[in-house]
Amino acid sequence: MTPSLEQIHWPVRTERLRLRRLTEQDLEATWSYRKLPEVTQWITAGPHDFETYREQFLESGKIDLDVAVELQTPDGQLRLIGTVMVYIKDAWGQREIVEQTKSVEAELGWSFDPQFAGQGYASEAVLKVMEICFEDLGLRRVVAECFAANKPSVKLMERVGMRREAFEKANSLHRSGAWMDSYAYALLADEWSAHRG
Predict the structure, then answer these.
(1) Nearest-angstrom CA–CA distance, 86 and 135
(2) Integer-rounded Cα radius of gyration of the chain
(3) Tens-digit pLDDT profile for residues 148-191
(4) Pairing mode, if any, of strands 17-21 and 12-13?
């Protein structure tokens, strides 16, 4: 069976958070913080209005890749505070053995509401998603990339134990028009096991 987020029994809980599949009804909540300049500057798409955001999200199929991260508020309600993308993909392999590379790794990405920054919620959510990738889905590797100037994402990848694998000079065009440096991070399943054990 090909690994898929459909195989997970949602919702999944951590000490403080509830993770579940993102739905169309969540898009306004995600728009409320993704439209903020401090978030938009680092994410892939930065539409100027909700309707465009909604259309892009639904047309691209991104909604099927995202996990909603919810926090229980003092009054007992659940508030969506971020998302973690899990894009299960093929690794590279030589032609004769390419079948063994199918759906063996996940690219992770994230965005979180800045008003909840500095409390460890992003680390807690990403660690749980990594656990799902390695322990529940049996993936062999997770990867993540970011602009080198995106210090919060760099720190997050390092906090969750990912290893910096690449620095690329001026390889990514930012919507500001500047060519920016980027980093690539990764973690293998056996490194995860050693880190957790």
Answers:
(1) 14
(2) 17
(3) 999 999 999 999 999 999 999 999 999 999 999 999 999 999 99
(4) antiparallel
State the virtual CA torsion across 112, 115, 116, 122 in degrees, nearest 10.
30
Residues in the chain: 197
Distance CA 195, CA 197 (A): 6
Sequence-separated (6 or more) residues with CB below 8 Å from residue 13: 19
- Strands (DSSP E) found in the chain: 12-13, 17-21, 66-72, 78-89, 105-112, 141-147, 163-173, 179-188
Reading the block at residue 179, the tokens are 């060519």
Crossing angle for the helix pair 27-34 and 50-60, nearest 10 degrees? 120
CA–CA separation, 96 vs 99, rounded Å? 8
Amino acid at 52: T
Closest CA to 47 of 39, 38, 56: 56
What CA–CA distance (Å, rounded) separates 96 from 129?
A: 32
Predicted structure pTM score: 0.95
